[in-house]
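Our preliminary data section would be incomplete without showing what the modeling component actually yields. Below, a chain of 360 amino acids is followed by its predicted structure, encoded as tokens that our downstream tools consume directly.
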Amino acid sequence: MMSDALKFFRVRPCLLLASFAWAGCAAAWAGTLEGTAAYRERVALPPDAVFEAVLQDVSKADAPAELLGRTEIDPAGQLPFRFQIAYDDAAVRPGRRYVVRATVRHQGQVLFTTDRAYPVLQGAANAPLTLRLVSTGRRPSQPALSEARPALTGMFAYMADAATISLCADAQRLPVAMELDYKALEAAYLKERTQPGQELLVSLEGEIAPRASMEPNQPPRLSLVVERFINVWPRESCGNPQVESPLRGTYWKLVRLGETPVRVAEKQPEPHLILANLDLRISGSGGCNGLRGSFELDGDKLRFRGVASTRMACLAGMEQEQRFLKSMEKAQRYRISGSHLDMLDAAGTAIARFEAVALR
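Predicted structure:
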């Protein structure tokens, strides 16, 4: 027989997805929405910053969103933000749309915000809750955050006087504001693209801030503002950041040597490496000559031994091939992040980067 205590609860399935977890096991008269939120930048918040999350009913397109619940964390503390929103369970009705939004404020000014609504409840397909940096308008002498922002990467495209970027961190597509260092980005992109509208990986320093919409009578849109353009990486993509490719048995194409993009000469093989599964042998190409050798592996320590190449002479790419071979001699460790493999020297500096490709 069910106890009196259990009669007060309606059991629902609890869903855990990536870094975002919704708790659906709640009392019949009151629900509790639990979650975590984070932002990408490696910065520390002011000690008196405040985190807020709200649960809203957005079912009516022609009416303001209805607030079902809200919560504050004051002070916000540091990442990740773990929050709970209490709401009236009886107010949740079948067929309606419910979303969660979040912000981080400092002295009334928004520092971070979600730039889209995250569907929740009633079987919605949840996604990680990501906060984006918002322009604060502070003078350089009055920083709200304690460190500089790290570089951003994303797939950039320009066509018909419109520029967009899909950020590697979460695949969110944003318009790119044509200001500050944008012209340098556009010029480098146009030089590298092979067809109109082609997406190319770029790296830059910037922020996400509201900018006027290109469409008339529309409110401002969150856009990427390019503060400093870094580089275009024409043979590289975001890859799959959710699943790490195995070191061995993967076709690793070479995409960078230090901070220089790798080129492939016409009618020549692309530089690549394959670390065998069954023995400690490597095979590959330097872009002209075939490569053979062995490797030693101990945890994240990786060293190449006895690497030899054929002795062909090619019209292009010979200098790049020699740089590739020298980087293999210097390799001491490796690091895999999603679809990317970095070879590191003794100081921990990335001297070569590869991207995983289906084994050929």
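The first strand starts at residue 9 and ends at 10. The two ends are 62 Å apart (CA to CA). Preliminary results of this kind motivate Aim 1 of the renewal.
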